[in-house]
Amino acid sequence: MIPSYRQIIADGLWHNNVVFAQLLALCPLLAVTSTATNGLGMGLASTVVLTGSNLLVSSFRRWLIPEVRIPVFILIISTLVTLVDLVMNAWIHELHKVLGLFIPLIVTNCAILGRAEAFASRQPVLPAIADGLMMGAGMTMALVLLGACREILGSGTLFAQAGLLLGGSFSVMELVLWQDYSGVLLMLLPPGGFLVMGFLIAGKRLVERSASRSRQALSAKTIDPTIDN
Amino acid sequence: MKISIPQAAPHVRNPGRVPSLMTTVLIALSPITLFAVYQFGWPALNLIGLCLLSALLFEILCLYSTGKPLDTYILDGSGMLTALLLALSLPPHAPWWIAICGSGFAIIVGKHVYGGIGQNPFNPAMLARVALLLSFPVEMTHWTQAAPLLSTAAPSFIEGLQITFQSSTAFDGLTAATTLGQLKTDLSQGLPLQQLTEQYFQPLDSSLGLTAGSLGETSSLLIAIGGLYLLRQRIFSWRLPTSFLGSLLLLSTTAWILAPEIYASPLFHLTSGGVMLAAFFIVTDPVTSPCTRRGQLLFGTGCGALTFVIRTWGGYPEGVAFAVLLMNAMTPLIDHYVRPRRYGRSRTGTPIKRPLWRRIREFFYTQPKSPSSGSDK
Predict the structure, then answer these.
(1) pTM of the entire structure?
(2) Chain B: nearest CA to A14, how far in angstroms?
(3) Could you read off the pLDDT of B337-346 as tens digits, one per residue?
(4) What share of chain A is helix, strand, coil (3-state, %, to 5)?
(5) Which candidate from A182, A189, A198 shows the least CB-CB separation from B134?
């Protein structure tokens, strides 16, 4: 059964979000999200790798022997990661210096292997690409959100050094929210990452709960219109 | 009909519920709280008030958002106790937002995230203190010389408000290092220890509380009085504070005897910093410490050893809070492995052999089994 694109989008961005629902990719998540820009860079790099690996795995799926599929996935993913690493080193060298250590670690990101195994190796090419894009977008969103929370609390800025990642014209995004802000150092350290992620997951659950409640109330109304009387 | 108060075993009830337990601990903390207010003046009172008030508000917020009954949980006093312990571990001239951030962290992250009272793996007050220390190292290590209330050196009421709410530095010239901090700095500069301790460590001042330090940690004597009151009331067993102080004493004495020029004296370790406060009010937290006797001994010993290690070789001058949190993290492990022996079984779970005299007696007195009872099987 091929899922509809609508379902792929909803899964990737919300219901099956890599970070907030599957709780995968926590290593890069906690390591790089001390600023929103780092999160964005890491998210975009992961999205490229994820989409590429989904595309390749899905195209090769008819020739994959189940016994050796994991090494093949890893080989594909690591090739793509090496490409991304070299490209970033060549064209956005400054950001590569910041993220450099974590780019090779995208290989070990379980989310990418997970999507190759759970989705791309069973679905046609186009849905696989869509899934890669949407999962990547969901992860990028989560990383940026987390990075933004930690950056605002930790150092009082938002999208610092965005010019390095996106080019000089984007340096208007670099905001300093509070002047002379001494900062909550804890938020920039790993415990801060765990704390913020915990609160964000709690927030997501709250939204889901209130949504399901209003849906129930709505369905109760439509089933039994006499309730209001 | 006259109802007499039951005196015998199955009818006697322990009146100890959570509110009365917390009230007793608050009573035990009152001397040190009053002394802190006397010693550090209006800023101390502001901090304690702010901590208590904001903790109450955060508690109401958490209970409301999780849908728990307000009346049972708000009046149990556990939030107040956490807030008071946190306030007592703050530097006296800390700004207002330190108090509010700390209470918020203690109540929300330290307690209600895990499910409220009795569910927290870490001591909320110590968790908040460590979070504050890591987040705001400057404000949390800004110590002031003690200046008794109503003395000329003490800040007036208005100045106290300014210190707490505007981070005013107009009233300065009073900063002082804690003895532990001073020791750490000077040792790193290679000064000989003997001369240093004579210079700024007076055991009497240190135990009476006439030194710089957090609000409630200065007077070891008053803390010990409160702690002994709690011990008398059987709020906690003697094992936790004794093993904690004992292991710290043992380690520091050993190190001091071996190399008195590098390691501080045991008296110094016991009377400075938050050791006494931790020994009687933090380590003895019934929620975050093991529940078996041997487990409690292990827990206290670990806390003392870690305190000594962090103080001596760690990056921070004071290590009590870190030590307690680390051992809190070990508590589930201790409770898993150190269990009480089941009746009739050894610790490994195998049935206990009857004592030799029982077996000899049975050998002589038991009737040999008749063949008919054997064939019934």
Answers:
(1) 0.81
(2) 23
(3) 888 888 888 8
(4) 75, 0, 20
(5) A189
End-to-end, the C-alpha distance of chain B in Å comes to 59
Name the H helices within chain B. 18-40, 42-66, 70-74, 78-88, 96-104, 124-135, 137-140, 157-166, 179-188, 193-200, 203-208, 220-232, 239-258, 266-271, 275-277, 293-313, 320-337, 356-365, 371-375
Could you identify the residue written with the tokens 């709020």? B235
In one letter, which amino acid is A39?
A: G
Q: Which residue has the tokens 């004592």?
A: B355
Distance CA B100, CA B50 (A): 7
Distances (CA, A) of A193 to A27, A91, A103, B345: 11, 29, 19, 47
Best residue in B108, B130, B135, B142 for a mutation probing chain A (most A CBs within 10 Å): B135
Q: Using CB atoms, which residue from B113, B131, B138 is nearest to A186?
A: B131
Note the pLDDT tens digit of each residue in A12-52.
888 888 888 888 878 777 888 888 888 888 888 889 999 99
Characterize the bridge pairing of strands A157-158 and A175-176: antiparallel
Contact A185 B136 (CB under 8 A): yes
B336: Cα separation from own chain's centroid: 22
* CA-based nearest distance A182→chain B, Å: 8
The Cβ-side half-sphere exposure at B213, using a 13 Å CA radius, reads 28
**Rounded Cα–Cα distance for residues B272 and A35 (Å):** 40
- Dihedrals phi, psi of B173, to nearest 5 degrees: 85, 10
Contact B134 A187 (CB under 8 A): no
- Chains A and B form CB pairs within 8 A to the count of 16
d(CA B200, CA B210): 12
List the structure tokens of A64.
């994959």
SS3 A112: helix
Q: In this complex, do B135 and A195 lie within 8 Å of one another by their Cβ atoms?
A: no
The ipTM of this complex is 0.77
